[in-house]
Amino acid sequence: MNRKELNPGRSPQAAFGARLRSMREARGWTQEELADRTEYSSKHISATETGRKPPTLRFSRGLDVAFGLEGTSESFERSLREMRNGVLLEGFPEYVGHEAQAVEIRVFETGIIPGLLQTPEYARVLVDSAVQRGSITPELAEERVAILAERQHAVARPRPPMVIAVLDESCVRRRVGGRQVMRAQLDRLVEFAEEPNTILQIAPFEIGERRPVNLPLYLLTMADRSLMAYAESQTQGHFDRHIPSVVPQLTAYHQLQAVSASQAESVAMIHELRKGSP
Length: 278
What we know:
By secondary structure, the protein is α/β, with parallel strands linked by helices. The protein has helices spanning 12-26, 31-38, 42-49, 57-67, 76-85, 92-99, 120-133, 138-155, 169-173, 179-194, 243-259, 263-275; strands spanning 104-109, 162-168, 198-203, 217-221, 227-232, 237-240. It folds into two domains: 12-85, 434 Repressor (Amino-terminal Domain), CATH 1.10.260; 92-275, Endonuclease Chain A (Endonuclease, Chain A), CATH 3.30.870. The chain has twelve helices and six strands. It has a six-stranded mixed sheet with strand order 3-2-1-4-5-6, sandwiched between helices. Helix 4 (57-67) packs antiparallel against helix 5, helix 7 packs antiparallel against helix 8 (138-155) and helix 10 (179-194) packs antiparallel against helix 12.
């Protein structure tokens, strides 16, 4: 059986895989034996060790149970979070941790569909494009896709949060991927609007200077009614839980909703765009 040599210095993902193999072999376990202990397949173990598959939060926690590392400074979950800090803007990992526990999520996005509403195909086009431009590596692209899938899964919990999404009109007019990708993404937005715990609004171009929010903004309301905010630019992210600075952002968001199209009007716009999708 051929044994692939690992290069942990190639990427954080490769380092994670190399550490996994080292610890597995130190215990004298085969990939099949570790698979049995984690309820994953041996192929999954192999792909993670060789860096072909990025680790997920669930998988990392399974490893911690198998190796007895839960809650320690050496846990695989901690390694995963440290790795993700290198592929996400500052503040975003902390935001994601709270997002999974929020009772209300408010989102405003410009240019692209918000991650929580993206189809897998739409998300893949975005990361593949970033790889082609050389702005991220293929390994980082896979990690971003994995993080997005976990965020979407966390929000689709038995008692889901209220999700309010206001999209700048550019989000639905900007063509990402081919016809099939964009039509499916528009369909997903309509499906989102039909869910009982969601509100979808489009901020049309015609509101002009009356749009009170100009950068992507995410606002969380937690079960204890505390508020948190995350805002980002092209290269920087900022997570904020300081009430004096978060409340004005919430006020601006309410003002944004007031000048945006209603959900019925927004869905009608999406239907028209879908008909005209080339």
